[in-house]
Amino acid sequence: MTGEPSGAPDAEEEARDFVKYTLLHLRPEWRRLPRAERAAGADRFVGLLESPPPGLLLRTYSLVGTKARAEMLVWMIGERIEAVQELHARLFGTPVGGYLDTEYSYLGMGRRSEYLGDHAHAGQEGTASTRRPHDLPYLVIYPFVKRRDWYALPFEQRRRIMGEHFRIGHRYPRVQIHTGYSFGLDDAEFILAFEADSLADFLDLVEALRPSEASRYTAIETPIFTATRVTPRRMFELAEGLE
User: Is 217 an annotated catalytic residue?
Assistant: First the structure.
């Protein structure tokens, strides 16, 4: 499912929070340090995630066993990009920071989709209720880019095509979408995130969307990251390795 650039809502009337997904790799050298040193470093790292800067909403996820070269995913939402930068700087300033690599990084902003019109349903893509985490157990994210000929289509044709897209999505109410708009802010056009109670539901949704007309205009929708919702402490424990 996708969002689109919008000229309909007035930017001054609509809150547009920054959305940031940071995917981190913990180098194996960290695991070779003495246990006491690792415990102290972990406490500092986890403490920052448990108490982010004011105004910054944060969720943590584990990628252990689901993606190469990234074990931790931090999802941030806030009004100020400076708060996002501050948290990253503080994390890298901990003892753990010397053993961290940012393997992937995605930045966007949340806003309402112009294709919803005046008849959006609660929880539908682009509405206010989809701009905050629902804290479901699974999260799948990926960058998304449309083919350029999509934007050459008349608006009403694009709205019709997206109407089919939305109707398919409504058949899977347990999958919640979060669209980050990245035009000019990052390499992709969108960063898509899907929360779900069941990964099987999400798999079925994506398969159902493949024959849709909108899918013909997809240029890029990889890499894909599948993660599980965990506390900051558990995220780090899984990345570090359980004994």
Answer: no
